[in-house]
Write a structure and sequence with these properties.
heterodimer, A: about 375 residues, alpha/beta, 8-stranded mixed β-sheet, 4-stranded mixed β-sheet, globular, B: about 375 residues, Rossmann fold, N-(1-d-carboxylethyl)-l-norvaline Dehydrogenase, domain 2, 2 domains, 18 helices, about 45% helix, about 15% strand
Chain lengths: ~375, ~375
């Protein structure tokens, strides 16, 4: 029996954790990054040093390569572990190597990931018959101690994944679950795309603590200190808008406290409380995490660009008002001197421009 | 010529400062607090007067101010007063207006300092409800004369004294005569076009809520920080500048030439060393603000007063003039959530004042009449 191969694109914190994990399970791994320097150490040492919950040691990763063709050759699954703003560049790089029936998994998708990736490939003239999947959040918690050395604090998280086109979910699930049996298939891409945890609590934490962060260079614990009861109320309101959008699009979403609990990131009491403040305050894994040192951080840019920005746009498609999200995004624009409305993933980029809810659902089921 | 008799309505930080300073300047000063709070806020002054302390290099004198009358009897307080200063937070103006309205007599000048938006309109409505048709003048200033705080039931310190404020009567045709009278007390005051100008010119409206909202976590967390010096960071400053730009644009559509707040700070506090090329810079380094610590709760007048009586009326003026207010509206939305209060329901905007049906032209005619 030929060994199964997974191609991992993006050799950052998530990608290296996945590479080590997959190699330890005996799979062949192709590992690629758009920035060749990211791979230098791994190529030099012939693999990765790993520690944490997957054990401690060294595993070979012979498939680390700055040649994308080599990395994806004969792969049974292509997985991207890159930030949302990186999707376009990876789509462009991947285009020449894609064949009908290839399965691509965005881990995570961030909001709008699979929709946008599908639209990008369509615009670039990719072959039909591709299957694009996304998880709602990265299935690993990990960080690179330094280049070539990864610490994994969580793996096999029971994240959700969705499929475009939805009609090929069975086929996609077989491939995805052969590598990641803990991942849970859900029927609608709107379920994963609206379950972007970071989009819910990062922008409020940044905007409503903008002064504190700038004045002290982030000298407070982002979740434990930064999400106070009043700020929790803002997150609750943002979350209610998100749930209403989900409902309008036909998906029953988990409220934020329960979502955080499902990621093993807070207590059951917190989940039951329904309070974002309690959920954040009782989040053991997040307790000691400090705020970023500057507002110029992915908690602001990425979690709006690939987070509440596209969620607000989906709100417009769904006819659901989003005054809380709009207020936070507008303030972020002024604080940062950036036009997040212009730059965030929009309906056109998600392939949904001008579509009604019914048309959008039909599109995600049937593909293009 | 005999010096004017003044009455101060209120017994908080501002009221104490007005009363003490004017007494030190030789005016007859009476003070009034509503019965419910008299014991707590003013009774000690009846016995012991007010100790008035000056910080920074201000052109006024400190000392012991032997207040002539400190009472919870509204008629006694206003009787014989030439000028009556209402110096209370905007949400308390209604109660004080109702207390004194029956006793005001011809020729008395009532100055709301500050008014925030709609103070004179609201007082006029209350005079009508009280059935008092006396020929009084209702007027507003855009802010308070003093920056300071009470530090005991009988003492107050001030670190800021404004060299000139704008004054407008409602309607504006009464401004000139009333200003001449009030200039005997505050010679540096000048006239504003109308009460739309004064109502839109309180720096509190632009300053307070954005700093609260964008420092919300730190406000609620243990530990102190300086409201302006620590709270106005570059990012926060950019939001304040945007709110200020929205205010100025609305002012232009109303036919007003509003003074930018940067200029206001320099005019008022330049004497105390305030300077800067931009509004945030001036705010974050103003020596007058060096002792101003931030509130420790969202339940504070910086949101409870400055949003319903400042930002929400500003937003409504934006709608009537067609000026978009993304920053002002965003701050309002978040203030509502952060306080958990129906700030819009409580707001003193045109609709809640019974003026919601007016066109822009009608509103301008009404205030200028």
């Amino acid at each position: 029996m030929t060994k199964k191969k997974i191609a991992i694109l993006g050799a950052g914190n998530g990608g290296c954790a996945a590479a080590a994990d997959m190699r330890l399970k005996g799979y062949e791994v192709g590992l690629y990054d758009l920035f060749p320097s990211t791979l230098t150490k791994i190529c030099e040492q012939g693999g990765l040093y790993y520690s944490g919950v997957i054990g401690e040691g060294f595993v070979t990763v012979k498939g680390a390569s700055s040649d994308l063709g080599q990395a994806v050759k004969d792969a049974d699954l292509i997985m991207l572990t890159v930030p949302g703003p990186g999707h376009r560049a990876y789509a462009e790089a991947l285009l020449p190597y894609l064949k009908p029936n290839d399965i691509v998994l965005l881990n995570p998708g961030h909001t709008g990931g699979a929709l946008r990736f599908t639209q990008l490939l369509k615009e670039m003239g990719a072959p039909q018959g591709l299957i694009i999947c996304e998880t709602n959040t990265l299935s690993y918690i990990s960080r690179l101690e330094c280049s070539g050395r990864v610490i994994v604090s969580s793996y096999e998280k029971p994240v959700m994944f969705s499929v475009i086109p939805g009609k090929r979910q069975g086929e996609a699930a077989a491939a995805v679950q052969s590598f990641f049996p803990a991942m849970v298939p859900v029927d609608s891409v709107f379920q994963t795309t609206l379950s972007n945890l970071n989009a819910i609590f990062h922008p409020p934490g940044m905007v409503l603590n903008a002064g504190w962060l700038e004045n002290t260079n982030g000298n407070f614990r982002f979740y434990y200190d930064g999400i106070t009861p009043a700020i929790g109320s803002v997150i609750d309101s943002l979350d209610a808008e998100r749930l209403a959008i989900g409902k309008a699009l036909g998906v029953e979403l988990m409220a934020f406290p329960r979502l955080l609990y499902s990621m093993d990131s807070t207590t059951e009491q917190a989940a039951v409380s329904g309070s974002a403040y309690i959920a954040c305050h009782e989040s053991a894994p997040n307790r000691f995490i400090k705020a970023p040192e500057t507002l110029d951080d992915r908690y602001m840019h990425e979690d709006i660009h690939s987070g509440i920005g596209p969620i607000a746009y989906l709100g417009r498609m769904a006819g659901v008002p989003t005054p809380t999200m709009d207020a936070l995004i507008n303030l972020a624009c002024f604080i940062m001197g950036r036009d997040y409305w212009r730059d965030a993933i929009n309906l056109h980029q998600m392939g949904l421009a001008g579509k009604s809810i019914a048309e959008a659902k039909a599109y995600t089921y049937a593909g293009y | 010529m005999a010096k004017a008799k003044v009455c101060i309505l209120g017994a908080g930080n501002g009221a104490f400062a007005y009363a003490a300073d004017l007494k030190m300047k030789g005016f007859h000063v009476s003070m009034f607090e509503v019965q419910e709070f008299y014991e707590q806020n003013l009774s000690a002054v009846a016995k012991g007067g007010i100790d008035f302390n000056i910080r920074n290099n201000l052109p006024i004198c400190g000392g012991h101010a032997a207040i002539d009358l400190a009472t919870d009897d509204p008629q006694a307080a206003v009787s014989g007063a030439d000028v009556i200063f209402l110096v209370v937070p905007s949400f308390a103006q209604k109660a004080f207006a109702k207390a004194v309205a029956p006793y005001l007599t011809d020729g008395q000048i009532v100055v709301l300092g500050p008014s925030n938006f709609g103070g004179a309109f609201e007082f006029a409505n209350i005079m009508e409800e009280a059935g008092n048709t006396a020929d009084i003048v209702l007027a507003e200033t855009e802010c308070m004369m003093y920056s300071g705080f009470k530090d005991s039931p009988t003492s107050v310190w001030v670190s800021g004294y404004k060299m000139g404020m704008k004054f407008a009567a409602y309607p504006a045709s009464k401004t000139a005569a009333a200003l001449r009278a009030v200039q005997q007390i505050y010679p540096e005051w000048t006239s504003a076009v109308n009460v739309l100008e004064t109502g839109m010119s309180n720096v509190n409206t632009v300053f307070h809520a954005p700093i609260m909202v964008l420092n919300a976590g730190r406000v609620e967390s243990p530990g102190e920080f300086l409201f302006y010096w620590d709270g106005v960071t570059p990012g926060v400053g950019r939001v304040i500048e945007q709110v200020e730009a929205e205010r100025l644009a609305i002012g232009r559509r109303l036919g007003l030439n509003l003074k930018p707040h940067l200029q206001v700070l320099i005019d008022w506090y330049g004497i105390s060393g305030c300077k800067g090329d931009t509004l945030p810079e001036a705010m974050a380094t103003n020596p007058v603000y060096q002792w101003d610590t931030a509130p420790s709760t969202m339940q504070h007048r910086f949101l409870l007063e400055d949003v319903p009586y400042g930002m929400i009326p500003l937003e409504s003026l934006g709608k009537i003039t067609g000026v978009p207010t993304p920053a002002t509206t965003a701050i309002i939305e978040l203030a509502v959530l952060l306080t958990g209060l129906d700030l819009r329901g409580a707001a003193r905007d045109l609709t809640n004042l019974g003026m919601g049906g007016l066109s822009l032209e009608q509103l301008i005619s009404l205030v200028n009449a």
